[in-house]
Amino acid sequence: MLDGTDAVMLSAETAAGDYPENAVKTMHDVCLETEKNPIAKVSHHRLHEHFKGIDETIAMSTMYAANHLGVKVIAALTETGKTAMWMSRMSSNISIYAMSDNVQTLRKVTLYRGVYPCGIEKSSANDWSQVNETVIETLINKEVVENGNLVVLTKGMYKDKSGGTNMMKILRVGDANY
């Protein structure tokens, strides 16, 4: 957990023992407690490296901004989950909601640290403020944000294009215009 792992697993012997539910609960409790350690919250992930693509750059910029601005939640509109994957590699206690209408993507992102799948209908709207509003309404309905909270939203300008994340926007829940 201190190294930023995305997943932990039990051995076959432990999982098939007399108390598999207790083993999973204990591991869960240990992970939660370990993540409270300040060392687990600090990330210098790739701070002095060059990024390979625009989507990776947006993901890293998002995490940097979110960790320094007091953001409540990050919402990543994603076709493949790749932007959420990049974000999950940085240690943070900020929840990342990977929003997609692609069931395979939603399944995949459950393996990434701190990333939660969130089904969202594909918008036919060309009005980005409507898309932003839908994202905020979805997060409010999930009871993960409330008025005044900051949300960082990542998305691509080109709909239905994988690897097209090229935009980050900071939204305040409850503002009149998104």
Report the biggest beta sheet as strand number plus sense, adding barrel if it closes: 5 strands, mixed
**How many strand segments?**
5
Mean pLDDT: 84
Number of domains: 2
Structural class: alpha/beta
Can you identify the CATH class of the largest domain? Alpha Beta
Distance between the termini: 36 Å
Q: In CATH terms, what is the architecture of the largest domain?
A: 3-Layer(aba) Sandwich
Low-confidence spans: none
Helix content estimate: 25-40%
Shape descriptor reads globular
* Annotation field: number of helices: 7
Query: N-to-C SSE series?
Result: HHHHEHEHEHEE
Look up the CATH topology of the largest domain.
Pyruvate Kinase, Chain: A, domain 1
The CATH superfamily of the largest domain is identified as Pyruvate kinase, C-terminal domain
Oligomer: single chain
Would you write up a description of this structure?
This protein has helices spanning 12-15, 20-35, 38-41, 54-69, 82-88, 103-109, 128-141; strands at 73-77, 95-100, 115-119, 150-156, 165-172. It is an alpha/beta fold and 178 residues long. It has two domains: 12-41, no CATH class; 54-172, Pyruvate Kinase, Chain: A, domain 1 (3-Layer(aba) Sandwich). A hairpin with an 8-residue loop joins strand 4 (150-156) and strand 5. 28% of the residues are buried.
What is the topology?
Elements: H1 12-15, H2 20-35, H3 38-41, H4 54-69, E1 73-77, H5 82-88, E2 95-100, H6 103-109, E3 115-119, H7 128-141, E4 150-156, E5 165-172
Parallel strand pairs: 1-2, 1-4, 2-3
Antiparallel strand pairs: 4-5
EC number: 2.7.1.40
Pfam families: PK_C (PF02887)
Protein name: Pyruvate kinase
